[in-house]
Design the sequence.
């Protein structure tokens, strides 16, 4: 029997046991994956981890939509029986939920090939060579690089199986790999850091020279960074920082955040909240998307939905529960971090539609402003409810439409809706960035933001 | 304490297998985790979540390289597989490990009411009470979410040096978020309360946690945009300590120091702050959120002086980095779970109390910002540059606290900020944070008394 079939069997068995324990409806989510991580320092292996992780989460519903959840790392009948009983017991203490329950529309969509064809050909030794090559490239690509803090290669490959008492049972296999390097350039108090990264379905898609070279280039570009005077000015976000912000925007567009009044988009569904040049979608099936899969964490087919377009909110992200509350259909966004968590609405792959401008054109269009290549403090500096943010930034000053000197310790401040409304242009060149979820990101030129400096 | 998760003879055999082809050190870290959380949102108990996991992480150190594997099992055959697999990485002579005794627990924490002895109904009641209390605070409170979480981590650690030890860690935490709305404006407030303790932590009125969250949200409705520019700042006690954690603490972690990725490298013995400034990383602070009996390598936790009379005194070490500096671990080798390698991490990090009064700090600030609480923070250890989002802040005008402000951040540099500490009050408080590093999230206590900073850059959207 294949691994996928074994895992599906375990999921079906868990559902049976939950029903036997007194659940009215039940669902089991099983995960079994292998992962490798190699950390390299000074061109040598600092640590090498090879491990497996497997677990199951059982979600049950009793009368009136009362929900209980239990998870564990055991797949034997006794273990599953204990988990099922615990989930049922817990459900007794939940409040009734008129919108609670399993999705009615489970199926598997065609997400294409989710496993890199060459994945199995990569021995640990080859992965180590790749990680060292990334480190080496970061150290040698630019003479101003003084140190490389760490270069990391990591991959995972595994199965997900989901079964529920409404008759759905599905499984899929997927793989992913990424590598990144963190380089320092300059010396002493003037040390600046740069991150280079690559991401794909497997190590074949990672280019060590490009990843290490990017880390070196990003650090070197900031050597000699100074503080600048505060002002209101155009801000050009590079793909990394644009991705981080769009991840937060997508979070604020979750059906849950909006239904519960915890989003700056509440009550603004009909208003113009964004520049017409900006289009953002959630695409759970896109080729190459790290979060692409045939179905979400509760068995609803993943799909593509426009989130922001023509200046307005087009769709919100729904799982089955929030969709019922909103009187809508699930968008296949019932996501789980792992078997440890219940599904809740969140983005799959966030896709920014490509614009037409090259980076140089965006810089010229900015005129005088700041090209931001790093933001810090996003998780603390953004208020997800009001949308107000103020985050630390470094990058390169733009003067007369050209890149001028590097800048550190600036702060950029605005609120999410003002920022979306002020997008003046979108870059043509896109890349996958694993910040703020998984984002197919492009540079964004924001017409005006408050920059605090000296 | 509960009996060891793995018997010493099993650990001895597994360690011997890991060292079969050589190596300097091998370790077996076994853990049983049990967690329960109860969440309420939109006035409704959404259901609890209960999780039980157990497993072992096996580590082999050969020179500067570490080989690591983990498995979701405590069974010897599975451990032997992992040990054999990581042993492949080594190429030397087998090292004979020390004989192991039974693991015994050290530095046990006092837990008066074990959460597992409290009924789920009582836990549900705590969360419901928070919802009621927050909503009773004002009609403009439109949404409340509250979460109770408990977890227990039983660990047993053996290593090739003959170490056999264990710990039993129980933590409880309550978190409340309230949303207030007036006209089109929405604001939120959060409050948390937690510790290395049992359910007794919530016996004295959990409602005040909820009321505090609600008050913050209501206050924020009146907030004006934060000013931008350089100004004096009074940082609040408790979660204000995230400043020390981020701007100084991370730079003292020995992994960053040894890679020259810290501005504090080579500065032991240097005066970095005024003479009245003392700071500690204290993994033994009774009942505190970041406290453990031993660290995740089996080293008893300590009260480590990091700044004494303004002078940098110690870095924070795990076993591996201590060996490289010919030092001794300071009990800071922490890991999220058996699935992670230990790295040098803070436990409870705080500025020691001074003798100033809070009111005097505000008055001395004159015109500036009172940063009561942060939403979190981030630092670049290599440069010491940091940024903190101020989740609750007020203007200080003419030596008095006046209007609440929104959207404020503090940016600066760790070394620079230590030098502008003007005064420290006596009201030390430890708050419950989660610290992320190397992909691992561990509970970390952050704390301080009120602190006055002479001048720091405030970022905001106001003038």
Sequence:
């Amino acid at each position: 029997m294949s691994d996928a079939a074994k895992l599906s069997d375990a999921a079906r068995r868990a559902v049976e046991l939950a029903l036997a324990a007194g659940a009215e409806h039940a669902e089991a989510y099983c995960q079994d994956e292998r992962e490798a991580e190699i950390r390299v320092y000074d061109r040598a292996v600092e640590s090498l981890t090879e491990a497996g992780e497997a677990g199951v989460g059982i979600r049950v519903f009793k009368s009136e939509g009362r929900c209980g959840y239990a998870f564990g790392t055991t797949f034997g009948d006794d273990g599953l029986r204990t988990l099922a009983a615990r989930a049922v017991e817990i459900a007794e203490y939940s409040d009734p939920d008129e919108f609670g329950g399993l999705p009615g529309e489970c199926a598997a969509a065609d997400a294409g090939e989710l496993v890199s064809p060459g994945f199995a050909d990569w021995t640990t030794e080859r992965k180590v060579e790749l990680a060292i090559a990334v480190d080496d490239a970061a150290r040698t690509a630019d003479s101003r690089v003084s140190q490389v803090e760490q270069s990391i290669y990591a991959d995972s490959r595994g199965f997900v199986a989901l079964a529920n008492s409404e008759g759905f049972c599905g499984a899929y296999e997927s793989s992913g790999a990424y590598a990144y390097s963190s380089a320092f350039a300059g010396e002493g108090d003037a040390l600046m850091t740069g991150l280079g990264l690559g991401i794909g379905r497997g190590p074949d898609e990672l280019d060590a020279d490009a990843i290490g070279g990017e880390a070196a280039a990003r650090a070197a570009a900031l050597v000699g960074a100074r503080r600048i005077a505060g002002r209101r000015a155009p801000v050009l976000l590079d793909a990394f920082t644009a991705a981080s912000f769009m991840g937060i925007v997508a979070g604020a567009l979750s059906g849950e955040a909006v239904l519960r009044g915890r989003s700056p988009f509440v009550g603004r569904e009909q208003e113009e909240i964004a520049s017409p040049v900006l289009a953002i979608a959630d695409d759970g099936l896109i080729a190459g998307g790290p979060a692409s899969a045939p179905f979400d964490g509760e068995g609803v087919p993943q799909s593509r939905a426009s989130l922001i377009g023509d200046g307005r909110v087009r769709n919100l992200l729904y799982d089955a529960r929030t969709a019922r509350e909103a009187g809508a259909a699930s968008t296949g966004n019932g996501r789980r971090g792992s078997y440890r968590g219940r599904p809740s609405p969140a983005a799959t792959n966030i896709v920014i539609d490509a614009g037409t401008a090259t980076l140089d054109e965006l810089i010229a269009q900015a005129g005088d402003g700041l090209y931001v290549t790093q933001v810090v403090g996003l998780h603390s500096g953004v208020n997800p409810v009001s949308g107000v943010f103020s985050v630390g930034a470094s990058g390169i000053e733009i003067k007369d439409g050209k890149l001028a000197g590097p800048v550190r310790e600036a702060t950029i401040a605005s609120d999410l809706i003002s920022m979306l409304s002020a997008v003046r242009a979108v870059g043509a060149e896109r890349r996958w960035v694993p910040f703020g979820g998984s984002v197919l990101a492009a540079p964004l030129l924001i017409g005006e933001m408050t920059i605090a400096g000296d | 304490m509960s009996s060891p998760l793995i018997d010493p003879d099993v650990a001895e055999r597994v360690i011997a297998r890991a060292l079969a082809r050589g190596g300097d050190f091998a370790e077996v870290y076994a853990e049983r985790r049990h967690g329960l959380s109860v969440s309420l949102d939109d006035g409704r108990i959404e259901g609890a979540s209960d999780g039980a996991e157990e497993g072992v992480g096996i580590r082999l150190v050969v020179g500067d390289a570490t080989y690591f594997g983990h498995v979701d099992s405590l069974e010897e055959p599975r451990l032997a597989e992992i040990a054999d697999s990581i042993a492949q990485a080594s190429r030397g002579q087998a090292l004979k490990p020390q004989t192991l005794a039974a693991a015994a627990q050290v530095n046990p924490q006092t837990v008066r009411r074990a959460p597992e002895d409290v009924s789920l109904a009582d836990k549900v009641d705590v969360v419901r009470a928070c919802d009621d209390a927050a909503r009773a605070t004002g009609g403009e409170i439109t949404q409340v979410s509250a979460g109770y979480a408990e977890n227990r981590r039983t660990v047993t650690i053996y290593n090739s040096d003959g170490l056999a030890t264990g710990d039993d860690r129980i933590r409880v935490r309550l978190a409340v978020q309230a949303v207030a709305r007036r006209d089109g404006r929405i604001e939120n407030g959060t409050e948390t309360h937690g510790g290395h303790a049992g359910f007794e932590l919530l016996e004295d009125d959990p409602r005040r946690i909820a009321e505090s969250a609600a008050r913050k949200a209501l206050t924020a409705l009146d907030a004006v945009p934060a000013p931008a520019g350089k100004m004096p700042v009074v940082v609040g006690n408790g979660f204000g300590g995230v400043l020390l954690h981020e701007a100084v603490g991370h730079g003292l972690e020995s992994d960053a120091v040894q890679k020259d990725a810290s501005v504090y490298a080579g500065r032991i013995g240097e005066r970095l702050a005024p003479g009245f400034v003392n700071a500690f990383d204290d993994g033994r602070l009774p009942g505190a959120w970041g406290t453990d009996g031993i660290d995740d390598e089996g080293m008893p936790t300590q009260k480590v002086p990091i700044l004494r009379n303004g002078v940098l005194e110690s870095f924070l070490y795990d076993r591996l980095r201590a060996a490289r500096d010919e030092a001794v671990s300071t009990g800071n080798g922490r890991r999220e779970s058996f699935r992670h390698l230990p790295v040098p991490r803070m436990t409870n990090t705080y500025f020691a109390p001074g003798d100033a009064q809070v009111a005097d700090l505000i008055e001395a600030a004159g015109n500036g910002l009172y940063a009561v609480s942060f939403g979190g923070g981030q630092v670049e250890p290599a440069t010491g540059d940091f940024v903190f989002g101020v989740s609750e802040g007020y203007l200080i005008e003419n030596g008095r606290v006046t209007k609440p402000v929104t959207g404020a951040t503090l940016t600066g540099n760790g070394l620079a900020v230590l030098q502008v500490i003007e005064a420290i009050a006596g009201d030390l408080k430890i708050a419950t944070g989660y610290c992320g590093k190397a992909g691992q999230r561990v509970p970390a206590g952050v704390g301080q008394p009120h602190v006055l900073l002479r001048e720091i850059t405030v970022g905001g959207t106001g003038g």
Notes: Chain B has two domains: 8-221, 224-459. The longest strand of chain B covers residues 44-62.
